[in-house]
Amino acid sequence: MHEAINLAKYTFFEDLKKDHLELLSRHVIKDYFNDNEYIFREQQKASKLFLILSGKVAIESTSTQGKQVSIQTLKEDDILGWSWMVPPYEWRFSARTLEHTELLIMDGEFIRDKSAKDHDLGYEIYKRLAGVFAQRLEATRHLLRS
Asked: Which CATH number fits the domain 8-145, given the four candidates 2.102.10.10, 3.90.1640.10, 2.60.120.10, 3.90.79.10?
């Protein structure tokens, strides 16, 4: 039996309309990743949205010398993965677990399609993702200054 997941208790989904929460919660699964396991890699097809339930995840990028550079560390209640919403729908970064990590995984293509049809949902998703974009940009900017 599919476990009911209350998305409203997570920051990214706070104050989302009840019908939107119900729609999205029907398309979410829980999964686990071991320590030092890649959730996704830069330039692969992007199709999922992740919410960290427990554990830590490093957002990484490949340097011009071919080394993985850590951009940011995410933790519980952080959102991971937004590239499914922005063409060309490829991961801009890699994501690697730093410890055993539990995630909620949502079908990003489903969210993108529903957002295109329901502009209220689309606005809410884009507004929330804009905060994630800004956070990643700020982390990258901070790294470049250090």
From this structure: 2.60.120.10
